[in-house]
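ok posting inputs for the glutamine hydroxamate job
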Amino acid sequence: MCGIVAAVTRYNIINILLEGIKKLEYRGYDSSGLAVVDHKNNIIRIRCVGKVNELIKEVNKKKISGHIGMAHTRWATHGKISKENTHPHISSNIIVVHNGVINNNSILRVFLKKQGYIFYSDTDTEVIAHLLHWEQNKKKDSLQQTIRKSIKKLHGNYSMVVIDKNNPFQLIAARSGSPLVIGLGEEGNFIASDQIALLHITKRFVYLEEGDVAIVKKKEINIFNRKNFKIERKVTISNLQYKSAKKGKYSHYMEKEIYEQPISIRNTLKHYLKENNSIYFPELESKEKNIFYHAEHIQIVACGTSYNAALVSKYWFESLANIPCDVEIASEFSSRKLAVRKKSFLITLSQSGETADTLSALRYAKKLGYLGNLTICNMEGSSLVKESDFHILTQAGIEIGVASTKSFTTQLTVLLMLVAKIADFKKKYFISKKIIHSLSTLPSQIEKILKKNELIKTIANKLSNKKNILFLGRGEYYPIAIEGALKIKEIAYIHAEAYPAGELKHGPLALIDENMTVIIIAPKNLLLEKIQNNIKEICLRGGLIYVFSDQDFDCEDNVHIIKLPKVQELIAPIFYIIPLQLLAYYIALSKGKNIDQPRHLAKSVTVE
Ligand code: HGA
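and the output
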């Protein structure tokens, strides 16, 4: 969602702002803008609806320069997508970019209008700009004090960066809700929504915490915590590679990330397997921390693709580790009165670690008496990592494509390793041994299926004009069907729905006719016979069927089998998502869609 980049340096910052905001495109946005204070102390602001490239063109035409300024990509929440609503917003000498939502903005707007302020946009952010200006002029306070006073009046989330044109030597950042990171440079300092925006300039970062206000100057930074005490925050040296945020030989980040899965899974396995092939999750090792030993129930909370990964793991936790597991969508979990099971342990899953709904769920759960909580996440230093008792980082590397791929398969890898670890705690060593052995075969099996891309491309071309697709699976392949349908919806804009195959007769069978395409995931297992019956039921009613299986079937003309290699049953759910990811990718490609930045979607969903 919204992306922020700001800089104060000895040199012209225009290119830093533009390059930084370009790097944040992956978060999803509708419009972008930039403002600098130039050498004559004028505020120069340029804003455009559409892609950052439009902004770059406009900025280059106007040949502007400045040593302090900010840029923003806006994912609209308040006020339609328009130039007027695009950030930065200005109130006289105050310039603001903001990520979040101000819930009481209407009341504040009425109040500020009464004070004589004229609004040029419909955003909640312009309310912040005028409020800051009003507070500043009431008492002639410093900008830092003004911000402190103003944020007390804001209900909601307000991660923001502010510049006062009358003191154009400092950026002030305030964090609430969405992340902000300070990048430390040699000849200046920077602020961004995430480190990816700044990796081309620095590797040294300071993460702001909830409630922090930071004063960032060319040569120094000062941070004040929620209670307004000056505080030192740790400097983190990032090990993320700038080059891994590039597409390289691939046409899209999503394509690159699909093909990177064997490496990401290998890296994840290598990271948590010791030489003797035992699993080592550093935070779960010590006896007193070994809460899983005591846990009698696992509650997983997540959104989107992470939720689908959690659903798969439910089957594993229950069948392999014999521990009851429930999975719930984060936004639902945090908005209802819960009855917490006895000795229940909470797990949150998120690629970015900043998913607002999942964070709210964690904060809510902390008040409810769970045994403890663990987050499985791809981003070190993220809010979920900081706020959870324990964390396990997936080793997927930077994921830029909005439609998650490698974060899904590395989450599943970690979840299956966690199941093995719990089996170890319960002294069921044969289970953990089997899991580890199966997982070690996974990367090379995925390499094999990735070579089938031409076959999948042919099917994709046939499906690209479809309006509806039904996905079916049984057991742990049902969540894989859900994830396959989600990929198609996200990037190919085709209505796709997933059902447990057994539910067919209870409703969806009514949808079957010659216009309905049905994709079925049917590897050889105990449920195969039942799913073969489902295939017949659809076949008789004329639906066009594609079956992904390691088996041959006796079938009619309207059934197409996509024969896949046999893999070990434990890892097969992870394996079967790969052809479905490729299918969604190639359908979107043949439809000419914006694969890496699908309409209306954002990578890191930082508002609830
Ligand atoms: N509420 C502001 C900012 C939106 C946002 O943070 N999106 O991620 C707006 O609508 O401009």
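notes: Residues 253-446 form a domain with the Rossmann fold fold (CATH 3.40.50.10490). The pocket of glutamine hydroxamate is lined by residues 1-2, 74-79, 98-101, 123-125, 606-607 (CB under 6 Å).
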